[in-house]
Design goal:
Elements: E1 11-16, E2 19-26, H1 31-42, E3 48-51, H2 55-62, H3 72-77, H4 81-101, H5 107-118, E4 122-125, H6 130-140, H7 143-157, H8 165-173, H9 176-180, H10 183-186, H11 189-208, E5 218-224, H12 225-237, H13 242-250, H14 260-306, H15 311-320, H16 332-343, H17 348-357, H18 361-366, H19 368-398
Parallel strand pairs: 2-5, 3-4, 3-5
Antiparallel strand pairs: 1-2
Length: 399
């Protein structure tokens, strides 16, 4: 179907379970898509509008003040710094696009949601929470691919240069989250599965749950063009228990309850100190202990200094780094970031300026809120690298 109200945008019509679905494929950076959404809703034939948004992203688009309610101390305590930093990076990427193209990425999704509410239509947010998608994507990757992903995010999302024409054209046919990961997403089947294929099945299951509900007969589903084919296929095939599928895809694979790395490191260090005590007495054991403290402590210190942390935050990083690798629920970055937040507590003005500041690399260090996040990440990175260096030095000394 390619009716005039859809302004040339791709559309698929599906009948299933007594419901008529109109799947409208949009480009998240296109004024034509925005016009198509408004024109489609203007027809007045739909009782329900389903949108490729989750609750958090819907709130970010329609309630910009929600950002100002962030509590840095709760973020640290709940170990959500990595997730918040990733979301800020994605937002920075989208703001660069908005400045370059003159249209807010996702404007058509926002319009679909606000128009539905304004006209008294049923609004359904059918996308999976972005945090769950990021966690599932991260857990699906091995150690080295996680490093590649982190590097891709760091280089691609914090880059202040204009987005290239080829990338913009890809965005018109693809998915915003997939494009944010750059070329790495195309070359990594695990990422495609979690970022695209799983969300196709998730959104189809969400649409399927509307079947049989009173007042739901004609549904307009507004989704990115990159999801159109997969969503249509999943919706046509259906699933015996859509609620069960949604619950399954909403889950995040649990980490092993046994902290194998921490236990292995503890055994390695205890065995090494014991061997050193037996072979060289207190002098050799003390030398090994001092070596461990200095290497790991300096690693955390360098990371904290790179984040331009307060000197007391740097001291905290130096003290915590030799100890926290042996504690599975604590990290040197948590300690130094907490101290940094206490000493340079982010103000309301920092929150007001957070979106603008994080569009530039230097802004992450300028803004006190984002600098706490940088402190956490770089201190942990410095400590992690130092642990491997210290372990190698420990082994060589014992050998």
């Amino acid at each position: 179907m390619n009716s005039p109200e859809f302004a040339g945008q791709p559309v698929i019509e599906i009948q299933a379970g007594g419901v008529s679905y109109t799947l409208l494929g949009t480009a998240h950076v296109s004024a034509k898509s925005l016009d198509a959404v408004r024109a489609a809703i203007d027809t007045g034939i739909y009782d329900t509008v389903a949108v490729e948004l989750d609750g958090n992203r819907h709130r970010q688009l329609t309630e910009p003040d929600a950002l100002y309610q962030l509590d840095i101390f709760q973020i640290i305590k709940q170990d959500k710094i990595g997730l918040v930093a990733a979301n800020l990076s994605l937002a920075a990427y989208q703001r660069r696009l908005a400045a370059q193209l003159g249209i807010e990425p996702g404007a058509e999704l926002k319009a679909a949601a606000t128009e539905a509410v304004a006209r008294g239509l049923r609004l359904e947010l059918i996308d999976r929470d972005a945090g769950v998608t990021l966690k599932r994507a991260w857990s699906s990757l091995g150690f080295f691919k996680r490093g590649q992903l982190a590097a891709e995010l760091g280089v691609g999302l914090l880059n202040s240069e204009d987005v290239g024409e080829a990338e913009i054209e890809q965005l018109k046919q693809g998915d915003m989250l997939e494009s944010s990961f750059g070329e790495f997403a195309k070359q990594t089947p695990e990422l495609f599965e979690t970022i695209i294929a799983e969300r196709d099945r998730y959104m189809a299951a969400k649409l399927q749950t509307l079947q049989g509900q009173a007042g739901t007969g004609k549904v307009l589903a507004v989704v990115g063009a990159g999801h159109l084919a997969g969503l249509a296929k999943a919706l046509q095939e259906g699933t015996a228990d859509p609620s069960a599928l949604i619950g399954e895809l909403d889950g995040v694979p649990k980490k092993s309850e046994i902290p194998w790395f921490t236990l292995g490191l503890a055994v390695f260090l205890i065995a090494g100190f014991s061997w050193g005590l037996q072979q060289g007495g207190l002098q050799l054991a003390g030398s090994l202990l001092l070596q461990w403290i200095l290497i790991t402590g300096i690693g955390g210190l360098i990371g904290c200094m790179a984040a331009k942390g307060h000197w007391l935050s740097c001291l905290a990083a130096f003290i915590a780094s030799p100890l926290t690798p042996l504690h599975p629920a604590l990290s040197s970055g948590m300690v130094s970031a907490f101290v940094e937040a206490k000493l340079n507590k982010p103000t309301y003005q920092d929150l007001l300026e957070l979106k603008d500041d994080t569009t530039e690399i230097s802004g992450w260090w300028k803004n006190r809120f984002s600098r706490v996040l940088v402190n956490f990440i770089l201190t942990n990175t410095g400590t992690a690298l130092a642990v491997w260096i210290a372990g190698a030095a420990f082994y060589l000394k014992l050998g």
